[in-house]
Design brief:
By secondary structure, the chain is an alpha/beta fold. Helix content is about 30%, strand content about 20%. It has helices at about 20-35, 35-45, 55-60, 90-105, 120-125, 130-140, 155-160, 175-185, 210-220; strands spanning about 55, 70-75, 85-90, 115-120, 145-150, 170-175, 190-195, 225-230, 235-240, 245, 250-255, 270-275, 285-295, 300-305. It starts with 18 loop residues before the first helix and ends in a 14-residue tail after the last strand.
């Protein structure tokens, strides 16, 4: 087993001042120890200093560094008949530290909240990293009314009303929150409504602004929060308003040209979202997503939609 270049646990302890240095160490390590990543870089003949692995490789390959056993496998929903992604995670403890510290970074201690989860498409299958994260946040919360709701909107509404004067986070997949909003109208201005995921083929696609407008009206809140994460990452970004996502200190976003995946775009330009996630040290920290977005000067980013296969150019080395 190769020598690890830095203590992974230290990235979660305080604000990282040497992110670029740590990212380069992670890149060098993964170029040597991750066979899939290494082969992709050689075949891509990338001119840039850092190359991002297309996220679809997690559907066709086991993306993990040599010598590190799989402790848990997280899988995606695999919408529209597509093969789901599988993230072979060598250390579930690293995942727990990542999502716990990210939550504390943006929202404080989980024990200060009651967590209600409306995540039907995730609950209906095994291997969801989002369900795992939410369950652990509920355990840290310790609130007796924290819990998951599948399709029981009546019970969810009753619980929300009981918690009207408490700090509550309602985390829901977008289509389920919209379904609830179409049946109930509450006035809970202190409630944190956090959407994640999307329509999953259950509803007509809407813009984020349209979704947020419906939800703000239904719950009587000024802003809708959002969580950005995926099976292939061990870290999450959060938006507290207007879909403007901020990363934890060990995560960074870059935007590249749709037609040239090796061409980095300046702030404000729309392109493909690429993520450096240092928590992904034992798999791959450099992921080219299937999302379109743009970057702001403060490092925050906006998600503008999904790519389809016809959008991508010049980076189709999917079978090694």
């Amino acid at each position: 087993m190769a020598e690890i270049p830095f203590d992974i646990n230290r990235i979660f302890h305080s604000k990282i001042t040497n992110f670029d240095e740590l990212a380069q160490l992670a890149y060098n390590f993964q170029c040597q120890e991750n066979i899939i990543f290494s082969n992709f870089i050689k075949l891509a003949q990338a001119p840039s200093a850092q190359t991002f692995l297309p996220v679809d490789f997690f559907k066709s390959h086991q993306v993990i560094c040599k010598g590190f056993p799989t402790e848990i496998i997280f899988t995606s929903t695999g919408t529209s008949g597509q093969k789901p992604s599988a993230h072979h995670v060598s250390s579930v403890a690293i995942y727990e530290k990542s999502f716990m510290n990210a939550f504390r970074h943006f929202y404080g201690n989980p024990s200060e909240y009651c967590f209600l989860a409306l995540l039907p498409s995730y609950m209906e299958r095994k291997g969801s990293s989002l369900i795992y994260m939410t369950q652990k946040l509920m355990e840290q919360s310790g609130h007796p009314l924290s819990g998951f709701y599948l399709n029981d909107f009546d019970s969810l509404s009753d619980t929300l009303l009981k918690l009207k004067n408490e700090r509550v986070i309602l985390l829901g997949v977008t289509f389920a929150l919209l379904d609830f909003a179409s049946a109930y109208k509450l006035e809970m201005p202190e409630l944190i409504v956090m959407e994640t995921g999307g329509m999953k083929g259950r509803r007509e696609e809407l813009t984020r602004a349209e979704v947020h407008s419906v939800l703000k009206n239904a719950f009587g809140v000024q802003h809708i929060h959002s969580e950005y994460g995926m099976t292939e990452l061990l870290s999450q970004a959060y938006a507290k308003r207007d879909g403007r996502f901020h990363c934890p200190p060990w995560m960074k976003v870059m935007i590249t040209d749709i037609n040239d995946p090796f061409s980095k775009l300046p702030e404000g330009k729309t392109g493909v979202i690429n993520i450096i996630d240092l928590a992904n040290f034992y798999s791959c920290s450099f992921i080219q997503t299937a999302d379109l977005g743009r970057l702001f000067p403060d490092g925050s980013f906006e998600v503008l939609g999904r790519l389809d296969n016809s959008d991508m150019r010049g980076c189709s080395l999917m079978y090694l």
